[in-house]
């Protein structure tokens, strides 16, 4: 007890100092993506309009997840708004840890949020997080190289076509790799890609009884196809390539095709950063004719942890940051290509935005993604490149580490799948399925 | 000199440090032990009751356990071997007369001031990146295919990064020890015509033995718990999952606090086995 | 008598030592250089060493994105506070161990060191819950206490080994002259121990400054030090080497400069009893 008082006294000064300085202040934990950093730049406008100060805690994605998860599970109350994704939202919402985002103002127009997004950010029909931006995945390809290879990209290609095109575009002497894909370990990196890809090969993580399915031929097909294609036409060292590594390769003109997040489209077509900005085409993520494509669905969204003292201020901020007005504010200052995409229907109805070359394909990709029926065979879980159960992140990170070891040539596909199967079964049993 | 009175005063003076550390040890340890016997899943509602030794059995029987112990020992061992050997050589070099000794010493100790996160980020991105990293450029310059360091040579990469951080520490302690070496003894040996290698083995090395054990002891304590270097670079992939990292994955990635706590207890046991082993050696040296 | 050294041998030593020194320092030098490049120059092939257009824009961007001074100030307070508190608690303990040794002294010392082996990740949840209960999350006071406890064993150890080198006769002489215990510590021991205390303070300031697990996990805004500052500069999209370098340079510069200015102090006492 004495210790407690002594420590409190020691820190009281700090508290007083901060409390006196700001009338009202909210703390937001966010990821260091470009769109979020841009939003921080515009925060002054929010403070001007409302008188609410905003403190930012900007962290790299993995650190952010670790921080906010610890805080929400222990009810630490460090943040008034947390930036979370489609994976966390339904789980946390179900646990009652998030403030339901109902009662938003009329001009906010909740119904305008793309149904795919609001669906993925809800639990039992209640919205728990507002999408700041949303994404699916699609093919980005070099039109000039495609032409040179004498091929034409269909609007909705098959994996077989992609493999052939990749081989035809590859020119090792000119340092051009036919295809660049994520291979980096981590459930949100290579794990997300291979899971979305496996969906189109008819694979699934679990059957209806929550039995892991890595011992099924579909998974071996997926991995073998991927490894074969990447060995033939992928960049060296792809086992450690994630989103950013591939983005940089593509911008430097070293990739013929790249299948990744739709938000990347604005980076690869931006002439300031990309040497190939004028030669980029888009197509839907490939399939194998089984009825599911290999595109995912994701949103970075803002949520309010239950128990915050600043619920109203936090709601005001979320309304501001995910509003139509905010999109217009960014469009006015940075151009339409740089607005946060994928969150609102009205954005895609805007004639100005329709002129943006990747707008249509982004919307089409989002619309073909169905988190409730992600796979060919039925599954007990929701989510395309993940399964929205608490155990998934831990399991999938380890599984994707085994896969990355295959990509690095350290073990065979069979070995990796056997380990993945054993490990997943172990974890699911431990969790009580 | 030690009267009854001074003994009790001494005890009083030690009390704050001992009591605080006892608290720092017992409070988390008790809580860890408590959690380790529970099914505690924060994302599934927290405390789900007592499960006896289930977590302990599960943690050890997991296919990741022994490879993790092995990875831990390889990293600690590798870094110790490199820093001690290079540290001795470097200390001997720095002990020689030269111009600009002070500046060289500054250059050599600099890595010790760099926070682990920064050093891991810098090595990973600016040196070991297979496309834009400086090492890749170097390899290409000599006509070789760049190495994808963090996947193809993951263990080596981590050992390099950590050794870089700890080499200054080892060098400094060894340097102070070398400087205390009686130069007349060395000169006498030189006069007798003892070859340099023999001088090294019979005079310098025995003199350094105490410093070396201390370097090993202190570094081991820090190396057993390295985390940032792995978190930033490989994220535990490619066989670099140490025991500490495995516990991190259990607690934070899998959100299984019970299982992770059991892992924590194992880690404490392992650390103490290593510690007792080390302290036997150092303890002897401390008395002498 | 010093050995006569030929100029030739001295030159050889100099060249070799400088080469090794620069090699070891190179990663830091490269980071500093890169921080003055544009992002495109940072990944230029072949790499640009000095022949680029020096720019400060990365520093401007970093400063605009995060309030560097606040992180810096927190780092100073937390590292400084924990070191001072640690030394205050450790000096009497180390004194007692060095001058009134008992059979158990060595055991106590080794036990103290063993508390450092508790894996931090394993106890994150207990400590986090404790911090919530005590209202210490995101406070500098809380971090000062934690970092002090983490480094206390090292402080005690260092001071102990240093005190032991002080000859007991001096103390006895002082005692003969009728000095009280307080006077003995204050006027006899402390002046002699100043170099040892100084290097202990420096080493622990560095260790506390660089501690990256607790400082990141127990803070948000008010108490976040430079380790939290750096956690947002590994960019997920686009080129970032130059910005990362600028942020890295800003994070390590203060401690690097402090270390360089005080390296003589640091080196003198950094023996851990390695020298008898």
Report on the architecture of this protein.
The complex is a heterotrimer of chains A (433), B (288) and C (276). Chain A is built from 18 helices and ten strands. Chain A is of the alpha/beta class and 433 residues long. Chain A folds into two domains: 197 residues, D-Maltodextrin-Binding Protein, domain 2 (3-Layer(aba) Sandwich), CATH 3.40.190; 210 residues, 3-Layer(aba) Sandwich (D-Maltodextrin-Binding Protein, domain 2). Chain B has 13 helices and two strands; from the N terminus they run αββαααααααααααα. By secondary structure, chain B is mainly α. Chain C is built from 13 helices and no strands. Chain C folds into two domains: 54 residues, no CATH class; 167 residues, Orthogonal Bundle (MetI-like fold), CATH 1.10.3720. Classes of the chains: A alpha/beta (433), B mainly alpha (288), C mainly alpha (276). At the B-C interface, helix 1, helix 3, helix 4, helix 5 and helix 6 of B face helix 1, helix 4, helix 5, helix 6 and helix 7 of C.
Which labels suit this protein?
heterotrimer, B: 288 residues, mainly alpha, MetI-like fold, two-stranded antiparallel sheet, 13 helices, 2 strands, C: 276 residues, 0% strand, globular
Number of domains of chain B: 1
What's the number of extended β-strand segments of chain C? 0
Q: Any idea of the CATH topology of chain B?
A: MetI-like fold
CATH homology-level superfamily of the largest domain in chain C: MetI-like
Low-confidence stretches of chain B: none
- Strand arrangement, largest sheet of chain B? 1-2
In CATH terms, the superfamily of chain B is: MetI-like
List strands and helices in order, with pairings.
The complex is a heterotrimer of chains A (433), B (288) and C (276).
Chain A lengths: L1 H20 L3 E7 L2 H17 L2 E7 L1 H13 L7 E4 L3 H7 L20 H6 L1 E2 L2 E2 L1 E14 H6 L10 H11 L7 E4 L9 H11 L16 H17 L9 H9 L3 E7 L2 H5 L11 E5 L12 E7 L7 H11 L2 H11 L10 H5 L1 H4 L4 H10 L23 H16 L5 H19 L2
Parallel strand pairs in A: 1-2, 1-3, 7-8
Antiparallel strand pairs in A: 3-10, 4-5, 6-8, 6-9, 6-10
Helix pairs in contact in A: 17-18
Chain B lengths: L3 H33 L1 E4 L4 E5 L3 H8 L3 H31 L5 H9 L6 H12 L6 H8 L7 H4 L1 H26 L3 H9 L4 H28 L4 H6 L9 H11 L3 H31 L1
Antiparallel strand pairs in B: 1-2
Helix pairs in contact in B: 1-13, 2-13, 3-8, 3-10, 3-12, 8-10, 9-10, 10-13, 12-13
Chain C lengths: L6 H28 L4 H4 L14 H9 L2 H32 L5 H10 L9 H11 L5 H25 L3 H9 L4 H30 L3 H4 L8 H5 L10 H21 L1 H7 L7
Helix pairs in contact in C: 1-12, 3-12, 4-7, 4-9, 5-7, 7-9, 8-9, 9-13
């Amino acid at each position: 007890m004495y210790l407690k008082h002594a420590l409190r006294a020691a820190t009281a000064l700090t508290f007083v100092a901060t409390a006196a300085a700001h009338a009202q202040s909210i703390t937001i934990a966010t990821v260091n993506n470009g769109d979020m950093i841009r939003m921080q730049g515009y925060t002054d406008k929010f403070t001007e309009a409302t008188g609410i100060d905003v403190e930012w805690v900007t962290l790299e994605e993995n650190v952010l997840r670790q921080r906010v998860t610890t805080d929400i599970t222990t009810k630490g109350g460090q943040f008034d708004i947390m930036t979370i994704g489609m994976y966390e939202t339904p789980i946390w919402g179900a646990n009652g840890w998030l403030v339901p985002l109902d009662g938003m103002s009329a001009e906010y127009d909740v119904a305008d949020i793309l149904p795919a997004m609001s669906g993925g950010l809800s639990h039992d029909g209640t919205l728990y997080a507002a999408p700041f931006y949303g994404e699916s995945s699609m093919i980005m390809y070099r039109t000039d190289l495609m032409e040179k290879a004498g091929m034409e990209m269909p609007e909705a290609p098959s994996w077989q076509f992609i493999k052939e095109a990749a081989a035809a575009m590859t020119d090792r002497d000119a340092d051009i790799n036919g295809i660049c894909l994520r291979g980096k370990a981590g459930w949100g990196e290579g794990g997300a890609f291979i899971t979305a890809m496996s969906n189109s090969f008819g694979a699934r993580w679990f059957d209806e009884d929550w039995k892991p399915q890595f011992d099924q031929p579909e998974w071996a097909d997926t991995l073998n196809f991927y490894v074969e294609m990447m060995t033939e036409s992928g960049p060296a060292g792809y086992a450690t390539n994630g989103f950013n590594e591939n983005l940089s390769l593509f911008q430097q003109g070293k990739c013929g095709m790249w299948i990744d997040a739709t938000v990347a489209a604005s980076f690869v077509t931006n002439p300031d950063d990309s040497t190939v900005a004028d030669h980029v085409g888009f197509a839907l993520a490939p399939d194998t004719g089984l009825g599911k494509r290999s595109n995912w669905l994701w949103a970075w969204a803002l949520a309010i942890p239950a128990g915050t003292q600043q619920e109203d201020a936090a709601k005001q901020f979320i309304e501001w940051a995910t509003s139509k007005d905010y999109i217009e504010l960014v469009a006015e200052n940075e151009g339409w290509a740089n607005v946060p995409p994928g969150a609102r229907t009205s954005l895609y109805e805007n004639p100005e935005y329709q002129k943006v070359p990747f707008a249509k394909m982004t919307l089409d990709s989002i619309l073909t993604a169905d988190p409730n029926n992600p796979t060919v065979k039925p599954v007990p879980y929701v989510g395309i490149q993940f399964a929205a159960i608490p155990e998934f992140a831990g399991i999938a990170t380890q599984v994707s580490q085994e896969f990355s070891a295959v990509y690095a040539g350290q073990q065979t596909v069979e070995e990796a799948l056997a380990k993945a199967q054993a490990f997943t079964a172990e974890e699911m049993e431990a969790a009580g399925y | 000199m030690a009267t009854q009175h001074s003994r009790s005063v001494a005890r009083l003076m030690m009390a704050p440090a001992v009591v605080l550390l006892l608290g720092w040890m017992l409070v988390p340890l008790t809580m860890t032990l408590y959690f380790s016997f529970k099914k505690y899943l924060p994302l599934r509602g927290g405390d789900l009751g007592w499960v006896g030794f289930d977590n302990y059995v599960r943690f050890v029987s997991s296919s990741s356990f022994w490879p993790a112990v092995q990875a831990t020992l390889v990293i600690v061992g590798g870094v110790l071997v490199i820093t001690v050997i290079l540290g001795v050589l470097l200390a001997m070099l720095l002990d020689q007369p030269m111009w600009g000794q002070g500046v060289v010493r500054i250059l050599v100790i600099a890595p010790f001031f760099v926070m682990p996160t920064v050093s891991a980020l810098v090595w990973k991105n600016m040196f070991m990146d297979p496309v834009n990293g400086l090492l890749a450029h170097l390899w290409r310059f000599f006509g070789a295919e760049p190495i994808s360091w963090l996947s193809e040579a993951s263990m080596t990469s981590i050992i390099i990064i950590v050794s870089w951080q700890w080499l200054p520490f080892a060098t400094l302690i060894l340097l102070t020890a070398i400087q205390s070496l009686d130069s007349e003894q060395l000169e006498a040996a030189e006069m007798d015509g003892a070859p340099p290698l023999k001088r090294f083995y019979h005079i310098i090395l025995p003199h350094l033995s105490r410093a070396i054990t201390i370097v090993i002891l202190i570094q081991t304590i820090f190396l057993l718990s390295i985390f940032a270097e792995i978190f930033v670079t490989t994220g535990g992939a490619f066989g670099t999952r140490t025991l500490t990292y495995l516990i991190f994955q259990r607690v934070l990635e899998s959100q299984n606090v019970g299982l992770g706590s059991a892992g924590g207890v194992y880690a404490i046991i392992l650390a103490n086995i290593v510690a007792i082993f080390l302290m036997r050696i150092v303890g002897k040296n401390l008395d002498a | 008598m010093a050995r006569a050294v030929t100029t030739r041998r001295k030159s050889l030593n100099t060249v070799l030592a400088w080469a090794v020194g620069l090699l070891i320092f190179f990663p830091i030098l490269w980071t500093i250089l890169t921080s003055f490049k544009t992002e495109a120059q940072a990944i230029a092939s072949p790499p640009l060493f000095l022949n680029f257009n020096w720019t400060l824009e990365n520093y401007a961007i970093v400063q605009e994105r995060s309030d560097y001074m606040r992180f810096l100030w927190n780092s100073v307070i937390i590292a400084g506070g924990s070191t001072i508190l640690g030394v205050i608690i450790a000096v009497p303990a180390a004194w007692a161990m060095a001058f009134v040794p008992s059979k158990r002294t060595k055991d106590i010392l080794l036990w103290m060191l063993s508390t450092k082996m508790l894996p931090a990740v394993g106890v994150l949840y207990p400590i986090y819950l404790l911090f919530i209960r005590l209202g210490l999350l995101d406070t500098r006071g809380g971090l000062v206490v934690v970092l002090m406890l983490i480094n206390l064993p090292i402080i005690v150890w260092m001071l102990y080994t240093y005190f032991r080198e002080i000859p007991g006769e001096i103390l006895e002489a002082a005692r003969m002259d009728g000095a009280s215990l307080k006077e003995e510590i204050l006027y006899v021991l402390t002046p002699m121990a100043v170099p040892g205390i100084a290097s202990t303070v420096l080493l622990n300031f560095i260790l506390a400054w660089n501690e990256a697990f607790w400082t990141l996990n127990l803070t948000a805004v008010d108490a976040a030090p430079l380790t939290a500052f750096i956690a947002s500069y590994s960019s997920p999209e686009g080129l970032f080497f130059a910005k990362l370098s600028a942020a890295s340079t800003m994070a390590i510069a203060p401690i690097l400069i402090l270390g360089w200015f005080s390296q003589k102090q640091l080196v003198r006492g950094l023996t851990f009893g390695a020298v008898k």
